[in-house]
Amino acid sequence: MRSGWMSGQSTYFSDVVVEGLAPDGGLYVPKNGFPKVDAGEWLRLVDMSYQERALVLLEKCIHSADVCTLDLRSMIFKAYGSNFSSEAIAPVKHLIHNQYIQELFHGPTASFKDLALQLMPQLFAYCLPPMCNYLILVATSGDTGSAVLSGFSRLSGADTHRTGVLVFFPEDGVSDIQKLQMTSSWEGNARAVSIHSDFDFCQRSIKRMFGESGLTGHLAVEYGTVLSTANSINWARLLPQKTVLLIEFGEPIDVCIPTGNFGNAMSAVYAKQMGIPIRKIICASNHNRIITDFINTGMYDLRGRPLMLSHSPAIDILKSSNLERFIYHVSNGDSHLVKDLFTSLDSRQHFQVPQPLLGKIQQDVLAGWCSEDDCLAAIQTIYTETGYVMDTHTAVAKVVADSLQDGSCPLVVCSTAHYGKFTPAVFKALQIHSIPEDPLEQLKKLESAASRPEIDCH
Fold it and tell me: What single DSSP character describes residue 314?
């Protein structure tokens, strides 16, 4: 592995897991790319369980000298077991016409973040060097926080005492259910703190903490504690997401992903690089359409652009960390270009990629955005036509998929959260009145209203 910003010296997977950020402030990426998987092996994977698929794919990406196969297998089966409400873990269902939906919300905190964060803490604990404590800093726009707290709470023995978790979330930028999940009583050294700002401020502050030698030195000397992160800037957090994507078809598909920090979209890019038969990756934004504007114009521009709250708060993000990895990928590992672009973003609040690179980006990735009204209308329309209830993020992806899908192959919408996490917006979309004040009562009422038969599994 190495940093995507500087050539630097190579380092091992186990080091990458516990360090989180590279020493130069950049993000780690695989030095030699990903192993290829041929079509025959993909077809064999189709008939495997989710756990067996994950093992096959992660074995190819994690050297046995870092994590031996037997231990990796044990961690995977612990991560994806009875803690998920679906035996399929991430079931694919037919939605409408040639569109399918992959439900990524069957984990303990009801969001796709569980698919990475039930495994990542085990990898982290496994790779910890002796005689050192770690404080995991996390910025969340809603779902990551509770998923991190859940994942690390499942550690046992000495690992529980050697790792602490501190989650920062925007006070007014998450749903009531998300806030309750994060501020509930968690065992061990895990806490969530609300910040009177937005997600970008939380994420920026954490990156600054890593660069403050006075802070890191004080923690090391006084408490024997080193900082790390469980956001998708940590490679061990991003890597398990790649195993999720769409090997149930065995034929080319398009995939549409609600996109804020670009982590799930980056996982799809890497999955395609390995050989998963993904044709187009469609990024779906809400009215904070920074990713859509970038994919369509090559300009990443934060100037005079306030973050606007939305019905889909998990993608209320303007500074997408994983875009660094994406540009590194499409530029064939041009770390100097990546460093120049993101230095410009930090100093001048914008950058423009060269036109040839933009053309290369648009070969594989499309992007669109969805208004608040269209988001709610999509929830109501799909419920009326099929009886299926989407959450607001899934609705954003559905709207964008409808606008960009060409119909030449199946399209899979990634459903990244359960609708119950965003009940006020779903109530509004379904035109249900007399809403209870208590969030748990809201959830019960919505589940009762959404009791029509679900669509068939694929």
Answer: G
> 323-330 and 335-348 are packed helices; what angle lies between their axes, rounded to 10 degrees?
140
User: Residue 397 is part of which domain span?
Assistant: 92-108+237-449
Q: Which residues contact 266 (CB under 8 A, 6 or more apart)?
A: 232, 238, 322, 325, 326, 329
Interstrand relation of 133-139 and 225-229 (parallel, antiparallel or unpaired): parallel
Query: Which helix H or strand E contains 284, and what residues bound it?
Result: strand 278-285
Looking only at the bridges linking them, the beta strands covering 2-3 and 28-29 are antiparallel
Q: Is residue 136 part of a domain?
A: no
52's tokens: 């067996």
Which CATH number fits the domain that encloses residue 260?
A: 3.40.50.1100
Q: How far apart are CA 25 and CA 435, in angstroms?
A: 46
Residues in the chain, total: 458
Chain-centre distance of CA 302, in angstroms?
22
Q: Where are the beta strands (DSSP E) in 18-98?
A: 28-29, 92-96
Q: What is the pTM of this model?
A: 0.90
Q: With 90 as the cut, is the pLDDT of residue 4 above it?
A: no
CA distances (Å), 114 to each of 120, 145, 449, in order? 9, 10, 26
Which residues are bridge partners to 165 per DSSP? 136, 190
Q: Pick the closest to residue 397 from 254, 250, 190 (CA basis).
A: 254
Residue 379 lies in a domain: yes
Q: For tokens 């982290």, what's the residue?
A: 124
- Tokens linked to 14: 């186990």
In 275-388, alpha helices (H):
290-297, 323-330, 335-348, 355-364, 372-386
147 domain-assigned: no
Give the torsion through C-alpha atoms of 328, 330, 333, 334, to 10 deg.
-80
Between residues 245 and 429, the one the model is more confident about: 429
The answer on pLDDT for 187 being more than 80 is: no
Tokens coding 210: 């890593």
pLDDT tens digit sequence for 380-405: 999 999 989 999 999 999 999 999 99
Residue 118 lies in a domain: no
Say whether 15 sits in a helix, a strand or coil: helix
Q: Does residue 415 contact residue 105 with C-beta atoms inside 8 Å? A: yes
The alpha-helical segments, DSSP class H, found in 212-303 are: 213-223, 235-242, 263-274, 290-297
Number of domains comprising the chain: 1
What is the arithmetic mean of pLDDT over 361-383?
97
